[in-house]
Fold these 4 entries.
Entry 1:
Amino acid sequence: PMGSERMEMRKRQMSTTQETPGAAQAQHSTGNRGSNACCFCWCCCCSCSCLTVRNQDEERARRTSHELQAEGIPNCEESPAPTLEEVNAWAQSFDKLMLTPAGRNAFREFLRTEFSEENMLFWMACEELKQESNKSVIEEKARLIYEDYISILSPKEVSLDSRVREVINRNMLEPSQHTFDDAQLQIYTLMHRDSYPRFMNSAIYKDLLRSLSEKSTEA
């Protein structure tokens, strides 16, 4: 009996000795991982570097997205400051608002607050396309307009019905200055009926009108 007990004790000692280096190695490995990204840690400690790395990646992604978005937004049209008479005329009709660069800039600023600036950008791109006469330039600009404002994959896709989309797809087989005429008219009508009334009641328009009125009174 004593012999068998000693044998059992030796087996246990040998087993413990074999397990100890593995445990020590695991502990050492865990210690080394403390300063690295520990993606499997469940702690909420501030020193957990995986949180720092993740936060840095997210911040970098947000910054890159913002920079790309800023680069993708064309600058406003160059125009002299609007007069009080011009700003009052904008209230008479949507056509008068859209006739002047200053009116389009003010309206575009308002559309940006409603996250629908792409409607104005699309309309302006179509107007620019109509001024082209070079066939290769027309084809290239038509392709860019399609990718930027018609494609369902674009973040700046404008809202068009299926009939107009079919017309555009047919026209894109042989692009011309008038490839997007139907779509441009539909977006113009949308801005007129939907956004224009809200613009006239917006702080952007009212503040501009008040500022010009005060300057006129002072003069």
Entry 2:
Amino acid sequence: MAVKDDIDCYPHQSKGGTTWLHEIRPVTKDGVAVSRLRSCGVIFVGKANMHELGLGDTGMNPHHGTPRNPHDPQRYTGGSSSGSAAIVASGICPAALGSDAGGCINVVFDFTYC
């Protein structure tokens, strides 16, 4: 399972799609969702890219790259959980954690599958 970059997954830093957030907010433990999933035996494969600080619905990230739609690389996945959507849609892993602040889960679905 992949984890959106605004959800803590110790020992990996949560950058929130920025170049600086991890410097002022170190990760010292798993977020609640990660902790509960880890206790059930879930294996985490990595952190998923996102729109910087989740403040947009395009998924574009000038710092770490923009996740592309695996069904059409000329398009992007959209939504602040764009990296999570791209990972699942590509089949790299069956599930990913995302977060919804302003409808980004719906946007990701619309951009990636419709």
Entry 3:
Amino acid sequence: MGPRGSGLLVALLVLGLCAMAASEKPSSCRCSKINPEKRENCGFPGITSDQCFEYGCCFNSSNYGVPWCFTPLPVEEAEQCVMEVAERKNCGYPAISPEDCASRNCCFSDTIPNVPWCFYPLSVEDCS
């Protein structure tokens, strides 16, 4: 194999390792707290749980008529802050800062408009 061939091999190896690192099985809280009717499909018909996890998605085949391989909830700094937006209970006031929210022992996420950005955490034991 010539110098160009080995360079291509190294590039492919690096890309493969990056893809593997980016696709980790999501935490149980990021999967179990999604209402089955609100699941967003993340796979294809007949996908296995292992294939689904390789995509970084959740897998649950216990409900029929909904996707079994689905997009997890977004990553939050703390597990107790992972929840569907509709479950957020306001813990602050309009334009509260992340620091003021944290001083109330609440969660802060300003990525979604028109919902509470400062909200009460859930117990991690609520994950099932």
Entry 4:
Amino acid sequence: MGLLERLRKEWFILGIVLVIAVARLEPAVGVKGGPLKPEITITYIAVSAIFFNSGLSLKTEELTSALMHVKLHLFVQIFTLVFFPTAIWLFLQLLSITPINEWLLKGLQTVGCMPPPVSSAVILTKAVGGNEAAAIFNSAFGSFLVP
């Protein structure tokens, strides 16, 4: 596989790395109230565009079929909302005996209890050729389960 072909295949990951690098160099562009207005563009426009695009690319049969995979949905929800937070909690118990800042540990605990971001789950699932309909359902359902 040539370099150009590899870059085309890994465009999403490369894009993420590029955006992180640009944000590191010029963080003022993406701050709240900055030129990109992330409080509007991210919250409303980007997430809506991702769901709209995903919805257009899904066939009704795929979505219906994905809804019938009850065992898959149970596994994903239990893994995301029970197993992962428990594993993070156990890991934090080990880290609590180290000199790591207490607030960093509290932040990790908070992030460990949150469902994955809907847009990221859908985009990454699509990028690796996974079951996009199941990803959309589980992301949305998980977000409704967590207050």
